[in-house]
C-alpha cells in the first residue's frame, strides 16, 4: 500500500478542468434567460464559483513549488511520505471533489430534479475548505523556508510554533466537519467518521445530564437526528466541542469503546481464543541478569512515581492453551474475572508446548484513555495468526497518573514477563514489543530504559503511528490537525499536557480498583462516575452566549455556512498572508494550551529528542505510519534519526488512512490491509530474530 502521489500533469489537468467548469457555470447562471438567473441561489453559486477560481489560481503555483522539493523530506526514495506530500494530497482530493460537483451543476442545473439550495451549500462548503487549505499551504511554505533542509519540525523556532498554535486557535474549522467531513480519507471510512462525529456531539449534549446509562444512550440517539440532516450545524457544534471541552469529556467518550455491549460485539466478530486472562501483578522488586554479564544482576523496582508502589495490570491472550498458562501460580494473579477458557476448567483441552516467541503490547489512547480491552480485536488475530502468546499492559492513565508512571509500569511489566515467561506460555527466546500511537511511544521508551538499566532489550519493535515528539512544535503533517476529525489539535494538546502533568490532580488509586475494572462496571455506574461534578459546567457549555448582531452570528446560530467569518481580536498576532487574503476565522478562540512544561522534552517522553547515546543499541524498529495522520512526521523524522545513527529501522507509509487505523481494521478493506502490514512486520521481526540466533549459533560452533 504505497502512498499514491498525483503527478504534476494530474494537477495541471485538474486546475485547468476546474477553471473551465467554474467558467461554464458562471456563464450559464449569468445568462438572463437561464431558469435560475438572478435568484438568490444563483447569486450564491456565481459568487462561490468566482471565489473557487481565485483560490485555485493562487494554490496552483504553491502546489508546483512543493512538488518540486517535497521528495527531499522522504525517508528514502522507496518510501514517499511526509507532511508536505500529505498536504498536497489533501489539496488534490479537495480539488477533485470541487471539480466533480462543478461539473454536476453545469450538466444538471436545468433539470427538474436539480436541488439548487443543496448544491449551492455543497459548493460553499468546499469553497470554505479550499480557502482554509490555501492558508495551510502558506503556513507550510513558512515552515519549509524557516526549517533546515530536510527537517520537518521547527524544533528551535519556538516563536513559529507558538504562532502556529495561535493560528489554529482562531481559524475556522467547522467546514471540515460538515459537508466536507472526511473527504481526504478513503471513501469507505466516511460513514464511520460521520457516525463518530455525530456521536461525539450528541454525547456532548447529554454528557452532564443525570440519566441512567440506557436512558442517556437513548437521549443521545434522539438528539443525533438534527446533526444528520443539518451538516452545517454538525460542523459548528463539533468545532466547538473539539476546541473547548475538557479532558474528562474526551476520556469518557473514548472509553465508550470499553462498554460491555461494544466489546461483546467485537469479540463476536473477532478470532476466538482459548485464554483471555486479566492479571494483577503485585509490586515487588525483580532481579534480572545484566545483558553484558548474566552472572551479575540488576534490581528493578516496582512503579513508584507519584503515589509509591502499586500493582501493574495486564491481559494475557493466547489462541491456544500452552504449558504454564494453566498453572496455579499464574491463576493466582487473576484479577477476579474468570478466564474465558482455560485448561484448568477444560481438562480435555490439549496443552501446546511453550512458544519460543512472546509479544508484549502497549495500547494507544493518547496516554489518557482505553485499555487492552478496546484493542482485543486485533490482539486476538495476532495471537492466532502468529501463534504467539500476547501480553497487553493496562498502564495507569493521565492526567491522574502523568509521566513517568505509565513508563514505569510498562517497563516493570516487560521485566516481569522476561522473568516469568514460562507462566505466559513462552520461553522468551524472542521478545517483541508492539504498540500504536501512545503505545508506540512506550515501546521505544521501554527499550531505552532497558538499555540504561543494562538488562536485555527486546528483539524488535513494531510501532504503528507512534507519537515520538510530544510537543506542539509545528510540522507540515501537524497542520492536518486543523481538518482531522479523529485527532483535532485541541484534543492532541490536552493529551500531551495531561501526560506531562500540566494541571493534573494526582491521586492514589483506590486499592483493588483499576481503569479496566471500572470500565467493566454497569453502564449506569460508569457514566455516573464520569459525570459527577460536571453537570453545571456542561449546562453552561450547552447554552453559549452568541453575539447579538452580524450576519455570520445569525448564520452560525442556525448552523448555516457563510463566507463572512469574523476576524479575531488578536488577528494581528497571526502569521502573515499575501495581500488581500485572509483565512476564515471562528467566532471565538479555541482554548489551546501549548506544551511548555520542560518534562515534555525529556527524551523518555519525546524520544525524537533523545541523544544518540540513548538510542544506540535499540533493536530493529519497524514503523508503520499513515499518509493522512497528523503524526506522520513523527515517524519519518524518528526513522531518519535512527538510520543516520546506523540503527536498523524500517518505515512503511500507507495511504488514505487516518491516525488509529489499527482499531478500525474491521471497517474497510483499506484498514484491514494496513493492519495486515503491521502483523507482517511483527512476523518479520520474529523471523529475523530466528535467523540471527541461527547465525550466532553457527558462529559459536
Q: What value does the Rg take, in angstroms?
A: 26 Å
Number of extended strands: 10
What's the end-to-end separation, in Å?
Answer: 42 Å
Biggest sheet architecture: 8 strands, mixed
Mean pLDDT across the residues is 83
Helix content: 40-55%
Strand order of the largest sheet: 1-4-6-5-7-8-9-10
Uncertain regions spanning at least 5 consecutive residues: 1-8, 510-573
Structural notes for this entry:
By secondary structure, the chain is α/β, with parallel strands linked by helices. Helix content is 46%, strand content 9%. It has 22 helices and ten strands. An eight-stranded mixed sheet has the order 1-4-6-5-7-8-9-10, sandwiched between helices. It has a two-stranded antiparallel sheet with strand order 2-3. β7, α14 (438-453) and β8 (460-464) form a beta-alpha-beta unit. The radius of gyration is 26 Å and the shape is elongated. Residues 1-8 and 510-573 have low confidence and may be disordered.
How are the elements arranged and paired?
Layout: H1 8-30, H2 40-67, H3 83-108, H4 116-146, H5 158-170, H6 190-206, H7 213-229, H8 231-244, H9 247-254, H10 260-269, E1 275-281, E2 286-289, E3 297-300, E4 312-318, H11 328-331, E5 355-362, H12 376-386, E6 390-394, H13 405-419, E7 426-436, H14 438-453, E8 460-464, H15 489-500, H16 515-519, H17 523-531, H18 535-542, H19 551-557, H20 612-615, E9 621-626, H21 632-644, E10 649-654, H22 669-700
Parallel strand pairs: 5-6, 5-7, 7-8, 8-9, 9-10
Antiparallel strand pairs: 1-4, 2-3, 4-6
Amino acid at each position: 500500500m504505497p502512498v499514491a502521489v498525483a503527478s504534476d500533469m494530474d494537477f495541471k489537468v485538474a486546475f485547468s478542468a476546474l477553471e473551465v467548469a467554474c467558467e461554464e457555470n458562471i456563464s450559464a447562471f449569468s445568462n438572463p434567460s437561464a431558469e435560475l438567473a438572478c435568484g438568490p441561489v444563483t447569486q450564491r453559486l456565481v459568487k462561490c464559483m468566482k471565489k473557487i477560481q481565485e483560490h485555485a489560481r493562487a494554490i496552483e503555483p504553491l502546489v508546483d513549488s512543493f512538488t518540486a522539493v517535497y521528495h527531499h523530506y522522504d525517508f528514502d526514495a522507496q518510501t514517499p511520505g511526509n507532511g508536505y506530500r500529505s498536504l498536497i494530497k489533501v489539496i488534490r482530493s479537495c480539488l477533485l471533489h470541487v471539480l466533480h460537483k462543478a461539473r454536476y451543476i453545469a450538466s444538471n442545473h436545468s433539470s427538474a430534479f436539480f436541488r439548487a439550495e443543496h448544491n449551492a451549500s455543497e459548493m460553499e462548503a468546499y469553497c470554505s475548505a479550499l480557502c482554509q487549505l490555501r492558508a495551510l499551504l502558506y503556513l507550510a511554505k513558512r515552515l519549509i523556508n524557516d526549517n533546515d533542509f530536510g527537517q520537518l519540525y521547527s524544533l528551535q523556532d519556538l516563536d513559529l510554533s507558538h504562532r502556529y498554535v495561535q493560528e489554529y486557535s482562531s481559524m475556522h474549522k467547522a467546514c471540515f466537519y460538515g459537508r466536507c467531513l472526511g473527504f481526504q480519507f478513503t471513501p469507505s471510512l466516511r460513514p464511520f467518521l460521520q457516525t463518530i462525529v455525530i456521536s461525539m456531539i450528541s454525547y456532548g449534549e447529554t454528557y452532564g445530564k443525570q440519566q441512567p446509562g440506557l436512558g442517556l444512550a437513548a437521549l443521545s440517539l434522539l438528539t443525533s437526528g438534527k446533526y444528520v440532516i443539518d451538516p452545517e450545524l454538525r460542523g459548528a457544534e463539533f468545532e466547538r466541542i473539539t476546541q473547548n471541552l475538557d479532558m474528562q469529556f474526551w476520556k469518557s467518550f473514548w472509553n465508550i469503546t470499553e462498554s460491555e455491549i461494544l466489546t461483546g460485539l467485537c469479540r463476536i466478530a473477532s478470532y476466538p481464543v482459548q485464554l483471555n486472562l486479566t492479571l494483577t501483578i503485585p509490586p515487588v522488586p525483580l532481579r534480572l541478569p545484566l545483558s553484558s554479564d548474566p552472572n551479575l544482576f540488576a534490581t528493578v523496582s516496582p512503579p513508584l512515581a507519584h503515589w509509591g508502589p502499586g500493582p501493574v495490570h495486564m491481559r494475557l491472550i493466547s489462541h491456544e492453551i500452552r504449558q504454564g498458562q494453566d498453572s496455579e501460580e499464574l491463576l493466582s494473579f487473576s484479577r477476579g474475572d474468570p478466564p474465558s477458557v482455560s485448561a484448568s476448567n477444560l481438562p480435555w483441552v490439549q496443552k501446546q508446548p511453550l512458544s519460543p516467541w512472546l509479544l508484549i503490547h502497549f495500547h494507544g489512547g493518547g496516554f489518557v484513555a482505553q485499555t487492552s480491552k478496546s484493542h482485543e480485536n486485533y490482539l486476538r488475530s495476532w495471537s492466532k495468526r502468529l501463534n504467539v502468546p500476547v501480553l497487553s499492559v493496562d498502564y495507569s492513565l493521565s492526567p491522574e497518573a502523568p509521566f513517568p508512571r505509565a513508563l514505569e509500569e510498562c517497563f516493570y511489566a516487560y521485566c516481569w514477563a522476561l522473568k516469568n515467561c514460562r507462566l505466559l506460555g513462552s520461553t522468551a527466546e524472542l521478545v517483541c514489543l508492539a504498540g500504536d500511537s501512545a503505545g508506540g511511544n512506550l515501546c521505544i521508551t521501554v527499550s531505552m530504559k532497558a538499555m540504561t538499566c543494562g538488562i536485555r532489550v527486546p528483539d524488535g519493535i513494531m510501532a504503528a503511528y507512534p507519537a515520538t515528539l510530544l510537543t506542539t512544535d509545528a510540522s507540515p503533517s501537524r497542520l492536518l490537525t486543523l481538518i482531522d476529525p479523529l485527532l483535532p489539535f485541541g484534543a492532541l494538546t490536552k493529551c500531551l499536557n495531561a501526560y506531562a502533568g500540566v494541571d493534573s490532580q494526582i491521586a492514589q488509586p483506590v486499592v483493588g480498583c483499576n481503569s479496566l475494572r471500572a470500565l467493566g462496571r454497569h453502564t449506569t455506574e460508569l457514566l455516573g462516575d464520569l459525570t459527577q461534578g460536571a453537570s453545571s459546567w456542561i449546562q453552561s457549555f450547552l447554552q453559549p452566549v452568541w453575539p447579538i448582531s452580524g450576519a455570520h452570528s445569525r448564520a452560525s446560530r442556525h448552523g448555516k455556512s457563510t463566507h463572512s467569518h469574523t476576524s479575531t481580536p488578536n488577528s494581528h498576532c497571526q502569521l502573515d498572508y499575501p495581500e488581500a487574503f485572509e483565512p476564515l476565522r471562528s467566532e471565538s478562540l479555541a482554548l489551546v494550551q501549548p506544551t511548555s512544561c520542560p518534562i515534555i522534552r525529556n527524551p523518555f517522553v519525546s524520544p525524537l529528542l533523545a541523544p544518540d547515546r540513548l538510542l544506540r543499541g535499540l533493536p530493529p524498529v519497524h514503523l508503520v505510519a499513515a499518509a493522512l495522520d497528523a503524526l506522520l512526521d513523527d515517524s519519518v523524522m524518528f526513522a531518519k534519526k535512527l538510520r543516520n545513527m546506523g540503527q536498523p529501522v524500517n518505515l512503511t507509509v500507507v495511504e488514505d488512512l487516518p491516525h488509529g487505523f489499527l482499531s478500525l481494521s474491521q471497517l474497510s478493506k483499506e484498514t484491514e490491509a494496513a493492519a495486515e502490514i503491521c502483523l507482517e512486520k511483527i512476523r518479520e521481526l520474529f523471523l529475523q530474530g530466528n535467523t540471527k540466533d541461527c547465525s550466532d549459533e553457527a558462529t559459536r560452533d
